[in-house]
Amino acid sequence: MINTGRQPALCTPNFHDSRREAARNWLALGLLLAAWNAGDNDAAARTARRPECLRAYPCVSVRAANRIMQGEE
Length: 73
Prior knowledge:
Blueprint: H1 15-39, H2 43-46, H3 62-70
């Protein structure tokens, strides 16, 4: 085999280190998102529920919701 002085891309000295660091970064991001989702479960309980007169509709426009909340019906 003739040595041309160039190494294949997969044989660089830091290839495995960079892949290991990338895997750890993805794992850390996954753990961060899981913790964020677990800690944010109370947000749904704090939000105001849909007014009774609008609960029968699957979709409600912002304009209709504002009219109902202001009592213009």
